[in-house]
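I would like you to help me understand the sequence and structure tokens below and explain how sequence relates to structure.
___
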Amino acid sequence: PWGRIVEHDLLPLRWVQVEIDFIQSLANILATAVESAESRTAQAAGAEFGQYALESNDLEATVARAVEVATQVLQTPMGTLCRFGGAGRWRVVNARGHVASWVGEETPAVRQDDRDGDLVRVQDWRTEIRLVQPERERDAGVLSSLGVTLRVGDRCWAQLTVQDVQPRCWRRAEVDFLRSLANTLVAAVDRSI
């Protein structure tokens, strides 16, 4: 939940259904306005990143910008881009937040057979039963993750992931935004090869 509307009175009051319906209507209008504003912000950030990726000849800087934009727009304290290194291992090539020290280190991949296509979406690692959370993430206090795989040609090239330190129900718009960033990044990789 983004917020809560609370109505207070100094005297005891029995709420009638029409008053409850009115407050609920206000909450729905505010929720729609917040979602609309978030959507416009995400679209603008995605377009700006696309322009940057198109003009940049520096793949490393483009990767860093993708991680930065993902964490800012999705309002997460951490983000990473890990390159697939074979044998079920990922090498962290860019990280933002208090996991920035992971750059250059290897981490085990989430079991690929349990993923929803190229998407890893975990609302709360403490209750997750399909996937095994990497120990390093658990030690860093990561409770929820959203990641998309970047495929260059027919091979797995990297994974762009954002992490949060609280449980989080990832909305469809957030998944779509991260996929959009990943697709833009794949185009930049294709251009650099």
Observations:
- Residues 17-55 form the longest helix (39 residues).
- The mean pLDDT is 87.
- The radius of gyration is 20 Å.
